[in-house]
Each structure stands twice: as C-alpha cells, then as structure tokens.
Amino acid sequence: MNRCKQINQSIRSNSKIMSGIRLTTTVCVVFVMLSSIEAHDQVPGAPQSRPIVIRNATVHVVDGADIINGDVLFESGKITAVGKDVKAPKQALEIDGSGKHLYPGLIEPMTDLGLREISAVEETDDRTEYGSVNPNARAWVAVNPDSELIPVARAGGVLTVMTAPRGRYIRGQTAVINLDGWTVSEMKLKAPAGMYIDWGAMQPRGENAADERTKREQKFTELDELLDSVRRYQKAREAAPDTTATDVRLESLVPVVKGDLPVFIDADRQLEIESAVAYGQAQGLSIVIYGGYDAEACAELLKKYDIPVIIASTYRLPLRRDEAYDTAYTLPERLRAAGVKFAICGEGAGSPGGAANARNLPYHAGVAVAYGLPHSDGLRAITLSAAEILGVADRVGSISSGKDATLFLADGDILETETNVEAAFIQGRAVDLGSRHKMLYQKYKLKYLRSRPVR
Amino acid sequence: MRHTIFLVILHAVLLTTVLQAQSETEAKPIVGLRENPIPGFAFVNADVVVSPSKTISDATVLVQGASITSVGQQQAIPAGYQVIDCAGKRIYPGLIDAWSEIDAKVNESLPGYWNANVTPQVNVSDSIGATVADASKLRSQGIAVRLIAPKGGIVKGSSCVMLTGDASKGRNLLLENAWQHLNLTVPRGGSRARYPNSPMGAVALLRQAFHDAAWYGQAWSAYKATPQLDRPDQNVALQVLGQAIASQPFLIDAANDRMAIRADHFAREFSLNAIIRGSGREYRQLDEIVATKRAYLLPLEFPETPDVKTADAARDVTLQELMHWELAPENPARLAAAGVKICLTSDGLDDVGQFLNQVRVAVSRGLKEQDALAALTIVPAELLGIQEQVGRVESGMIANLVITDGNLFSDETVVHECWVAGERFVMSEGDKVEHPALAGKWELSVRNADGQNVKVRLEIEDDDGKIDGSVFAISVAEKERKQKSSKQKSKRKKDKAEVESTKLQNVVQQRDRLTASLDLGEVDKRLPSGISHLTIITLKSEGGGTDLLAGLRLPGGESQNPPMRRLSDFVESVAQSESDAVDADSEKDEVDAEARDAAYSQVRFPFGAFGSDTRIAEQSTVLFRNATIWTCDEAGKLQNADILIRDGVIVEVGSNIKAPKKCRVIDATGKHITPGLIDCHSHMGTDGGVNESGQAVTSEVRIGDFIDNSDIQIYRQLAGGLTTSNILHGSANPIGGQNQVIKLRWGQTMDGLRMREAPKGIKFALGENVKRNQSRYPNTRMGVEQIIRDQLLAAREYQAKWRRWRSGQHETLPPRVDLQLEALSEVQNGERWIHCHSYRQDEIIATLDVLEEFGIQIGTLQHILEGYKVADRMARHGAMGSSFSDWWAYKFEVLDAIPYNGALMHERGVVVSFNSDDRELARHLNTEAAKATKYGGVPEIEALKFVTLNPAKQLRIDQYVGSLRKGKHADLAVWSGRPLSTLTRCEQTWVDGRCYFDLRKDQELQTRDRDLRARLIQKVLDGGDSSKKSTPEEVAEEDRWVRHDVHCAAHGGHEYDYTGNLRKN
User: What's the CATH number for A106-396?
Assistant: First the structure.
C-alpha cells in the first residue's frame, strides 16, 4: 500500500470535498485506487492557497530540540508557527501527523541533478562545457525541470539541491534549486550560488619533483593572472563602460574576486585543501571545500578562516591503501570533534548512481551516525548545515517560523533506509511524490494482478 | 633428444684477434703467412676458488687455448707458457648471468600459430650479432657467460647462451635453444584491442596453445598411419612447441610472488620442466614459493628509496612500498636459506656495471657467500645443462676466469682481470693510474727562432681521466715575487690573471701518449704565432718512476724536444683525507647495519598494512551468547539466542546452549548475529584484468587463474560483514570468462581463498556492452542471441565428435581439445552455471528461450533490472535474479530500472539477491537489503535473505552457507544493532569459524601499522637520500589491470586507481 501517494494525492486535490475535512484513511484509499491506475507524468504543486497545519508529529526542527507531538502551521508558503497546540486559522487544512516525523527538506549540497539524464548517453548530458575555463557557464540555464531524476530525489525527501557543472578546472556557476516547478525560475532558490573549481587541476603531476614544482607554480601563476585581469577589467569597465570591450568570462568572475560569490573548491587531499585555503585568503575569496577527505588534518586552518567543508559522500573507499576501512565513515564525527563546520553530501556527480541516487542522501548521514556522529548532528549535516554553507539558511534547512515551508512528513527516522516519505511541501506547495519508478511499479503490479488465476 | 646443444669447441689461439691464426676449431683457409704464438698460460701462486665448496690455495691453473687443462698445486708449467703471477690474488670461475633479453625476429614466411603472441619457433640466436651487448661492462663484473632471451609475446621462443668475449659469433655462441620462454600476461606496449588483452586471457591462450601442440603431434601421427585421412596443415609453431614440451626446460616470467605461484601451477598442469624468472618479491609468500620446488632466477634490482620527503609524499607512500624497500635486499638470502635453488641475474638493473655491488648488497643482507657464488656459477650452469663447460675452475672447463685481489663478495675487492674462453681482459682501472704521472705543473723550455730558450709553464689537470691543460708565460718579475712571498695568494691570483696564457686544444690522451695543439705566440711574444703541436710521451724509467718526453712541432714545421721539468707535485692530501672519511663512514654503516638487522619488519599475510602475522588463524570453539540471531532459515529471528561453532562449522543454534570444555564464550548481549553476507556479483580480489574483451566468446578464460589474495578490498569488505563473493568476469562479450567464488579468508593463500564447494560458473552478457564493439559481431541484440545459440550448437557438436572418437570411431583426425567449447559443454551438461548480465525484458526472454531449446537451466540473471517486467517468465524457467537495489539511469538500457524490482520479482516467486558490482557498495550489503523493504515492503527477514541465503542459492552453495543452521559453515557477522539499519556497524566477521575481522583487532592493526610506518619513514629519512625519483618507475604488473568492469558505465565517474586508491586527475 502506497501511503505516501495517498496523503499526497489527497492534499494535492483542490476539490471542495477536501476543504476543512480531516484526512481519513478511507478517503485516501479512494484516491490511491484512482491514481494508481492513472499513469501520468508528475505535475508541479499548486501554490499554497490555504493554511496547512500538521499536528501531533515528531517535529525535527533541527535548530532546536525535537518537539514530540508538535504542530507546524504554514501559510502562503511560509512557516508561521511551530510548537505544541498551535492555533490554526479556521480554514486551515489539518493533517494528522500522529506517529509521523516531520523534517525540513533534505538538501543535497552538490550534485548534477537536472543537468544530465542518462550518463552514458552524451546527448542527454549537459554537465561539462568545452575547454577548462568556464566561469561563465551557469548551471541553472540547463536544468531540465522535467528530468525523470528529479521526482525520484524528491520522493526521498531531498527537496533542495545545489546543482553544478562538471569539468577539469573552472567548472562554472552553481545554483540552489528546489525540486519542484514548471520552469527553472520557479525552482531557483539562489543563483548563482557559487563558482565551482576543481583544485586537482592546480596540482598537476610531474615527472619528478622539480618538474612538478614548475608545473604547479605555472598553474598558480595562470590563476593569479586570470584574477588580476578580472580586477583590471572591472576597473576599466567602471571607468569606461562604453569603450571597454566585454568579456563574459572575466565578467562572471567579478563577484568572485570581490568575495561576494563563494567559491566551491573540489579538494580532497591535505595539500590541495591547504593550498586552496591559502590561495583563497591571499586573493580575498570566500571559499568552501567540497570533498574534504583529508580535512581533519587541516582542521586548525579551516577553523581559523571559518571555511566549511561539504563532505563528498561517506560511502566512500579509503583514499590510501593503509588507511582505516572506516576513514570516510568517521570523517563527519572527526570534523565535528575538531570544530570544523561541515555538511554531508550524498552520491555526488560521478559515483555509481550519482544524481540518480540523490535520494540516498540520508543514508550517508546514517553511516556517519553509526560511526560516531551524534544523531542530531547527522540530521543537521543534511539540512541546516548545508543550508548555511550554501547561503540559503534564511529560507530552508530548519523548521522555524519565517522560513519557507519546505518540509516533509515521513513514517520513521529518515536516516533509516526503510523509512518512506509520505507527504512533502516545497514553499507550501504539496508536491507530487510519484515518479517514473512508482509509475512502472504500479503498472507491473497490475500486470501480475491481472495474470493471477481467477478462483 | 634433450635440447639441442650447440657446443662450440674452442681451442683457438688467443690474445690475438688476428684472422690468420692457425686453427683447429674452424674450417676457414688461411690467407698469407700463418701465425702460431704459444697458446698457453700458467696462473701461479693463486688462491683458486674451484667451485663454491672448494678452494685450492697457492695453486696453478693451466690454460691452453679456450680450455683449462689443469688445476692444482705444484703443477709443472709447460715450456713457452706465459706465466701470470697471481700471488695475493684469487681466481674465481667466470660468472654466469642467466638473464638478458632482446627483440627477436619472427620468420613470418613459415606457417605459425593463429595468434601472434605464440611464437615458440623464434630462436633468439637468429637475431644476435657476434658479441653480447655491453660485453665489456659484463666482464668488468666478472660475467663471462650470459643468457639472451627473446623479448615480447606469450610463448616467446628459445634463448641462447653466449660468452662475453670479443671473438666471433661462432666462438661466443655456447648454447642454442637453451630454454623456451613463457609469459603469463600480456606483453607491455602491445595493443589492447586484440586477443588476449588481459592476463587471464594470456593464460587461456597459453593453455590452448599447449593443447594444440599435443593435438598437432597426434594428428600427424594419425595421418602418417592412415594417409587417407585429411592431411593436417603444417604449423611450425605447434611443431616446435610440441618438441619443447617433450624436451626443453621452460622459463616462465613471474612479475610478482603470485605470478610465480601461478607459473608453477601452469607448469604442473602440463608437466613442464620449468624454471621461474622471479621478481624479487618471493619472500612475501615464502612457504608457497618453496612448495613450488622450482629454481628461481632472482633480480638484484632492489627498490629505490621511497619518496617521503614531504608530509604529503609520506602520507601517500604505502606500507607495502616501505616494507619492500626494507626487505627486498633480503629476498635472495631468504630463498636460499629456505633451500630454494636460485640464480642471481642482472634482470632489471639499469646499469649492469652495478651487478657485483648488488650481489654484495644481497650478501650483506644474509645471503651466504657460498650460495651467492653457486647462484652465479654452478646453479645456472646446471639449469642450462652446461655444467661440464662452465661454472667451475676445473680441468676440461672453458677458461672463464675472474681474477680479483680478494674476496669477490667484499666491497673493497677489485676485479683485475676477466678471462673469457681463454681471451684475456684486463680491467681499465690500471689505465687511470697513468694520468697522475702527467698531472701537475711543468716547466717547458722552448727554443725560439732566435735560438733563445723561452720558458713557459704547462699545467695539466686530470679530471677523472679527462685531461685539461693550459700554458702560461713565466715572467721574470713573477719569478722574483714568488721567491719573496709565495703566500700572498690573493695578490698572486690577481697577477696570474694578467699573465698571458692559452689552453691546450685537441687534447688526445692515448694510454701513454698525449697530443695537443696550442698557439705559443699567445703566451709569449718571443715564441712563434700559429698552431704548434705538442706531444708528451710517458715512459717507464729504470727506477720504477716515470720519465716524460715532450715533442713540439712549431708552426713553421720544425721539431724540437723541449726539456720538461716538474714544478710542483699535485697535492693529493685532500683527496686522501676524503677517502679516509669515507672509510670511517662505511665502518659506521656496518655497525648501523647490524643494529638494523635486529629490527627488520616481519612479512605479513598479505604483505603490507592490515596483514596478519600468521597465515591461518586458529579455528576455535566459540559460543556466542544471548544475541538476536537472524538465522535466515525456517527458525527465523531468535531473540536471546546462542550459537555454538566448532571446527569451522555451526554445531548448534538455539537457547541456553551448554558451553563445551575449552570453549571461548562471547557475550553478545544486545548484538545481532546474521549469516556472513554473500555478494553474488563482484570484481574485487582479482588481478587478471576482469575483462578479456579481445573476442566475443572467451569461455576459456578463468578468473580463478588470477586470485589476488593481497587485495585490500577483501579486508574492507570483511569489515562490512561479507564472507563470500562471486568474482565474475566482466560484461564485454556475450560469452565471457569463468567465475570464481571465493571466501574472504584474508591472509590465506590464493588457493586458500577459493570456495572449493562452489560449483563452476561462467559469465554471459547481453545488451549494450556486448554490442558496442563496431568492429566485430554482434552489433545488435539479434546478433547476441544468435552468437549464444551458435556457440551452444557448436558445443553440442563438439561433444558428439568426442563421443564418437572415444567410442573408437577413428575415421577422422583426432579431435582437438577446445577449451572454449569444453566450458560450454560443461554448461550444457549442467556442470557449469551461467551468470548472465542482462537488463531489458526482450533480451531476458530471448536468452531463456535459447537456453530452454538446449535444456539448460540458467544459474542467475545478473543485474536483471527489468526482471520485474518478466518475473512470471523467469519464475517459469526457474531463473533467479541478482540485482542492484536501486541503480538506474547510468545508461539507456537501465532507464526503466526501478528499486521495486527486487520486491516484484520476489513476490512472483523468483529467488532474488542484491549484489554490489562495486568495491564500495560491497561494504554495506546489509543496508542494500533494507531497500527491498523500503521499496515494495519485503519483510525484513526476507529482505536479509537477499544478501545471505538467496545469493547462496543462486551460487548453488546454500547447503554450506547463507543461513545459520547446524552443519553449515561457521560464517557469520556480529552487528552492533539491527543488521538492516544504516545506524548499525559490523563488529566481527567470522569465516569457517575463524575471526577475520574484529573492531578491536582492527584498532590493534592500525596502531601496529602506524608504528611501523613511522619507523620506516624515519629510517628512510635517516638515510638522507629519500628522493631518487629520477626515472618514472614502470607500473607494477598487478597495477596494469583494472579491478572493476570497465564495460559497466556506472563506474565511469569513479576516479579510483587499480589499487583502490582515489586518483586525482
């Protein structure tokens, strides 16, 4: 029995029958029977037209203690009240959250969701632009809102992601998007959210130590020169906007050199992390480390300059043969103990599944909890911490008044695999939790239902 | 006939290369006058090391022509013999270097084997010149005999043995068709498009070629007996290989310790007389190496100092590298001490001039001198069957002698002479002594045109054999000043700068004669301008010193002998004190070396971090008390239950089990115990390349030939509760290679990892991967279906042919053993299970239809991501499905993959498992199982079976593993909580009643390894020479091959290198 579908379909219906009626299982069943036969594409949620209150749920507000049997009221897409026995307007739709857990939407802080469909089919892949210097490439202009991968992630409770281009060096600009909308403009939460650079490109390998030093110095000089020309370009444009020829690459880097646009730096090894931090400081950049495998060794540095780390997946093999088998599992706890700010990312672009399995994000937090991280920090690492690092904590990441009503109701601990999401709201819109997977599931269940011999 | 010995009998007159020498050893007529110098030598007063076990002191060795005619004390010296006084010297037998290789020609015009890697007909002596490359360097190391092998290929051809003299090829060639050379992997630098392109393919090809050679002989015998039969095609490769199998020793290359063991297995399979070309890593699995009972050629190339200069480099270096650096020089000693027959060779040395140095390193690290000498003389001689010609200083042997000033294995000992078949080579050290005679400052009186004697100063510097010289004017003023105060150096320097001078040009030094040109006019205006030629001849004076005679030819053409007078002697005191310092250092080194010896690291199983100190852990009787036990059996989930294991099997599962005597009791209160997890689709633990993609059908290829028991992934997966894994061939071809089911017995031998009870299997593959190669059949799913059907038909006919032959119907040529069809015949006979990579419903049905046509029951359908669409069809066939839990969208054929697949198939009665196909995923199959509950609501007890009992059923090993019940293997995992939970961790993993992973033990191993790393890194740094990273090292054999299925696009983004490290860029 597909419970999530039930509640969801019920809420999504704008029919008069529903208004003011407390949901009952009987009503749900009617809807599920109808919807399961009707195979259709997922439809974006309608704007919230009346207040909704979810009652008696275990509310994981994240920025405070869990509220047992708590209520959350949201109106016009914003959370307006959180607590016990919240007073709701008369016309409010009431949802019984008894026995359920209410969470802020999970945030996958680095992915290529929307930019690719089938990784092996080039024609469906818009992740990597030609050349290696693409600061002007903007992820959000190529996000396909109808990607089959989006509803799959959403159904797992991942309601917000930062999607980013790929590439060998300066990859381009990232965007924080909500996973629901007719067009990308409805999905955008923050764009640009950052500039994405692969720091591995700054550490080329050489034939010997001297050669390596030369090659690396060369890369740094190149980047110095690029950023310097951005600054000069900016001055020239300000001084003489009409006569200074435009350059879209330089233009796109202006907010970076001003320190306004964060730079997400893909770096795993200590050498890379340290050199990225030092470089960022020297150039006045605002940086975030993505990857962060060796980040514990750089903890003092990261703390001193308040540089957060997005841990690129915890289900990850040790980088070096001699390292403990659980090195990646224990990284979040080690960073917490060291006082480094971090978020946990699920299967980033490239891993088996990649964006296709963004839905597995909570299990990456789960394994961190199994290997020492306190449970509440595990949840925070995939919600509020991510929102803070991505610069969207004023909108998402916790269940608090004034924030967007981007939240979901689940039938258990979301860090546990067996838990299912039953209803989800993005900015108050009840979103479709169906997906290609569920459609095919229903279709073939029907096949076997029909083929069952009649007694 | 045993191998063709081409012994060149040498009685040549030596010490001359004159062509006119009268000779009884060749047929060539003499032109002009005959020359007949006396061909005899007598080495007297020497300590003669006759053989490793016998030394005669104060002995005489008589050599006539190329041969030793007599060795002993108080020998009469025949008249006319040249006497060489060897008082204080030692004479050793000339050394034998049993390895070198060159590119060899293949005669393309002869009918050869279908695969260009099999060229047994190559005879390397067809491709070599008169002399051995680097001959003079070899002789400087005392090497008088060297083996030359053909390079490249898998069956490479025959080597030959050469003397290192300067004479003709006819004299130098000692033995043709010495050994036949094999390689168990794909030669480096070759194409990776052609078959074979993996080590397991290389071995499969070898195996087939050996069967073909045997068949070739039988076919020709049959034809000769019955000419009415179809005449077999001529094939020189098979003919030569057949002869070699019968009579020739094989040398098999083994690039690491595992390869050496595999080489031995291969040799046993075909009863070959085999010698193994080792890698220097044999010490890592010494017991197994000893058990091969084979002789080994060992390299003396020891690892370069690991780079640990920077913190980053030190962090990246592996314990394997550090331990290898420390232990490799001990490899020869350890093998010799264990009774392994070894030869020391120059294999891998960049500079063969380092040969003796390296031998001495091996001796300093414990190799007995006697063993070292044997490894350089009598052992290789015996292995080559030339022990009656070379290897000892005895009458009747070829006159290969090394004359030293002491013990060959001491660092200070100098090789003075090397004699090769009576040909004398004096080492060049002597020449150098002559330069200092010239070096220094000389006064030269040159008579000018006016009859005046003009004095100039000649300064000659000897920079390690290179002569530089300048001529300076000597002014009267300078002379005076010099007399007054010769110690005002700075001032003198300044003056000197003003003095006219010229450099000697075109300096040519030839032994005792130096010629140069100069313009004397530039030095002193009184002397003629233009180029004058100077000659200086060094002569031995009566008193034992040297006299110099200068000759000068002025530009005008007139000659004179200007008198030379030495001005001051070259000061060598600095050099002297330096060499003293070196001596002191080396003494200190010796002391340090002794101290170090005590602290050498222990070999571990497997070698490197996380290895075990012992090969096999104890198999104890253990009672786990008070756990939640998930039996995966009819008993279901038992609360507060016990489980007793003994001798590797489960004795009892239940409540309140009485602890037997001598039983370890583990309190498992609050813990959960499940059967050890089973992965039905993995590619770890193999270094054979995963895919042999060179052909569309490779059923002859065996993963089992290349188990890598040192793969760290085994340990990492144990830490996730995994105990059994199905190591499959990749999905590059419709009919792939044979699989190997292993148990994760970390630390055991390659063979010890095999799960013997598991029936045989084979990989098939459908869809996008196998139709991708545009240059061969098939390119569509239609073609895939046809090639499978065609091969099954071929196997059916193959079996019929053999049945007829075996029943005595011999009216045809004898049938050929075809390993490809053998494997498919086993499939047909139900002795080998198909594990078929499949995605789309159409291909699934098509494959089941074909198999049913042949009455074949499929083993499993792997991946089977559209299995949910045809679960009824699968159930009807009895096909089981081994799937990913939730992978999708990585390629087009998995667009319809859904995570409900497992549940839907399960509901229709299909036995379903979830597998990993991935080194990381295999570490948490327990949480993968939970996805069957999440997607489709499979009850947790059934879901856990997706990674325990069900894969056991699929691999047909469920009577041994997969559930916890009496009599089954004691394979189990202990969990901190509910096994399906992401919040749970694995605490212990047991295989066959042995604990292979334990959280606490893991901590101990980490501490142990950290300490060892620290010590070794310190040791490297103490050496003060930590980055010799000059030439990029060749990629190690095991790192040449991927360890995942490259044809599975899901892995595209993985940036792991082959050793499991994450690779950046």
Answer: 3.20.20.140
Which has the closest alpha carbon to B1050: B929, B872, B892, B826?
B892
* Residues in Cβ contact with B170 at an 8 Å cutoff, skipping those fewer than 6 apart: B8, B26
Distance CA B316, CA A203 (A): 15
Using an 8 Å CB-CB cutoff, list chain A residues near B1064. 200, 203, 268-269, 272
Find the closest chain A residue to B1055 by CA distance. A350
Q: Does residue B790 sit in the same domain as residue B872?
A: yes
Enter the DSSP assignment of A432. Answer: P
Does A325 sit within 8 Å of B923, measured CB to CB? yes
pLDDT in tens, B884-914: 999 999 999 999 999 999 999 999 999 999 9
- Chain A residues near residue B715 by CB distance under 8 angstroms: 325
For B370, the 3-state DSSP assignment is helix
pTM of the predicted model, to two decimals? 0.87
User: Closest partner residue to A204 among B608, B1030, B1065, by Cβ?
Assistant: B1065
Buried b (16+ CB within 10 A) or exposed e, A394-413: ebbbbbbeebbbbbbbbeeb
Q: Per CATH, the architecture of A3-104+419-451 is what?
A: Roll (2.30)
Measured distance CA(B406)–CA(A170) in Å, rounded: 66
| Residue finishing a domain among B569, B595, B614 | B569
Reported as a single tens digit per residue, the pLDDT across B953-963 is 999 999 999 99
Given CB atoms, is A200 within the 8 Å cutoff of chain B?
yes
Measured on CA atoms in the order A375, A381, A387, A393, is the torsion positive or negative? positive
* Mean pLDDT within B607-628: 92
Distance from CA of A211 to the nearest CA of B (A): 11
pLDDT band at B549 (very low <50, low <70, confident <90, very high): confident
What was the ipTM of the complex prediction? Answer: 0.93
- B868–A contact, CB cutoff 8 A: yes
Which residue does chain B place closest to A372, by CA atoms? B983
- Cβ atoms of B923 and B985 within 8 Å: the answer is no
pLDDT above 50 for A426: yes
For B521-579, the DSSP string reads GGT-TTSPPSEEEEEEEEEE-TTSSEEEEEEEE-TTS-EE---EEEEEPPP-HHHHHHH
Q: What are phi and psi of B606, to 5 degrees?
A: -75, 175
- Please report the number of interchain residue pairs, chain A to chain B, with beta-carbon separation below 8 angstroms: 192
- Is residue B1034, in this structure, part of any structural domain at all? no
CB contact at 8 A, A54 and A409: yes
DSSP per-residue letters across B1040-1059: SS-SS-TT-GGGTT--B-TT
- Nearest-angstrom CA–CA distance, A405 and A44: 16
Q: Is B229 helix (H, G, I), strand (E, B) or coil?
A: coil
Q: Give the residue from A64, A12, A16 showing the smallest Cα distance to A383.
A: A64
Q: pLDDT of B479-512, one tens digit each?
A: 544 555 444 444 444 444 456 888 888 887 766 7
Mean pLDDT for B562-578 is: 56
One domain for residues B510 and B654: no
* B775/B886 same-domain check: yes
Measure CB to CB from residue A117 to each of B886, B889, B904 and give the nearest one: B889
User: CA-to-CA distance for B676 and B874, rounded, in angstroms?
Assistant: 27
Q: Which letter does DSSP use for residue B697 in this model?
A: B
Average pLDDT of the segment spanning B388-408: 96
DSSP state, B63?
E
Mutation for B interface: A2, A322, A452, most B CBs within 10 A: A322
Beta-carbon separation of B1052 and A119 below 8 A:
yes
Which stretches of B592-704 are assigned E, i.e. beta strand? 622-630, 637-646, 649-654, 664-667, 672-675, 677-682
B263 or B436, higher pLDDT: B263
